[in-house]
Structure formats: structure tokens, C-alpha cells
Amino acid sequence: MSGVPFVVDPDPDPELAEAGRLLFAGPVDFLLSAPELHHLPPADRIEVCFAGRSNVGKSSLINALTGRKSIARASNTPGRTQALNFFSMGDRLRLVDLPGYGYAEAPVKLVEQWQATLKGYLAGRPTLRRVFLLIDGRHGAKKVDHEIMELLDRSAVPFQAVLTKADKPAAGTIEKVAEALKTDLARHPAAYPEILTTSSQKHEGLERVRAAVAGLLEL
């Protein structure tokens, strides 16, 4: 995907926007938590996952997208999500909430186990269609984000950057972060050339994420 201009918050195709609305308005059920790779469910349907640094807002975004208050556990405590959490959306799609990365205050062996499971899933899941890589809109991409991007490049797994907490930065900050992110992403061949900005608290940008997920079912 290198060489393709990156755009921020493109308007979704109306048909995909409606398909995304219907998809996320349908059944969404917690399936299982997989603390290690041998606990993963069968790779028998399309999966999309949400990855990002600890406390970037993965669980909050999943709750907002699905219109459920607590289907994914959200917490102000970094590192609370300690397993890959799978959610079924009908018989064609699963959403996956990954453990946060880059949090080093848990016991070292536990952190190493989380990271090994996360990286093993990202590098080797045959039904994984896209990683939605969440990046804090207040701070932009950090070194640990680029380490995950490089892993996805090597594994040929497409990822799409989603800026979270768009309601939090001072005026103009989110635009500057998005412009800097364009330059960062241009170095990563697995990066999908559309950046989405979201606010789970204000329900901003959700329709674009829903449309992006729905589009993967059309491929």
C-alpha cells in the first residue's frame, strides 16, 4: 500500500455506512477469553481486531461501536485486558479486543506472556482481515506502536490507524497528530491509507469504523 496518499476521515460509501449500521445493530455476543494461543477459537470466520497501547480506549470503542455499555470491559487501569477477548457478530464475523501493549508495571513474566500471545495472534491468524490500530489522539504514535506496525508489515497483515479520544486534545492538536501520523504510516507497507478519528465518549467517527468493518465482509 506504500505510495498511496493517506487521507483522514473520508466519507464512507452510503451503502457501506448502512451495512455497518445494520451489522453493529445486530447480535454481538461475548465468545471467550484466550490468555494463550492454544485457547483461541477455531479460525472459521473473518476476524478484525482492535490493538493499541494500554488505556488507549480499545474496550470503550468496542462498547460504543456496538451500542453496549459493558460488552467489553473498560477501565482506567492500564493493563486490565490480559487476554484476547473474542466477540461473535452473527456467523460471519468476530471482533477481537487485544491486550494493551507497552505497559510494563505488571509482573515481568505476565507481561512477557501477554506480549507473546498478542504477537503470535497478529503474526499467524489466517482469518484476520484487518487490525484497527488505536493511537491516542493526544500523543500520536510512539515507539511501541511502530514495533507493532513493523510486526504487521513482516506478517503482511493490513492495519488501519484509528485516533482515539478526539474530544480530549486542545483545539488543533488532533489535526497536527493526524498529519504527523500520515508521515509515520507512509513507511509501513501494511498500513491502510485511511486514518479514522473517533471519540467513544461523544460517539464521533463511529460510522466510519463500522463502515470499514462492513467493507471487509464484501471482499
From TrEMBL:
MF (Gene Ontology): GTP binding; metal ion binding
Key words, A-Z: Cell cycle, Cell division, GTP-binding, Magnesium, Metal-binding, Nucleotide-binding, Septation
Keyword Chloroplast listed: no
Gene Ontology CC: cytosol
Matches recorded under InterPro entries: G_ENGB_dom, GTP-bd, GTP-bd_ribosome_bio_YsxC, P-loop_NTPase
One Pfam family this sequence matches: MMR_HSR1
Every EngB-type G domain range: 44-219
Any one biological process term the GO annotation gives: division septum assembly
Tagged with keyword Glycoprotein: no
Cofactor: Mg(2+)
SUPFAM superfamilies assigned: P-loop containing nucleoside triphosphate hydrolases
Protein function: Necessary for normal cell division and for the maintenance of normal septation.
Family of the protein in this entry: Belongs to the TRAFAC class TrmE-Era-EngA-EngB-Septin-like GTPase superfamily. EngB GTPase family.
Name of the protein in its database record: Probable GTP-binding protein EngB
Origin species: Albimonas pacifica
Taxonomic classification: Bacteria, Pseudomonadati, Pseudomonadota, Alphaproteobacteria, Rhodobacterales
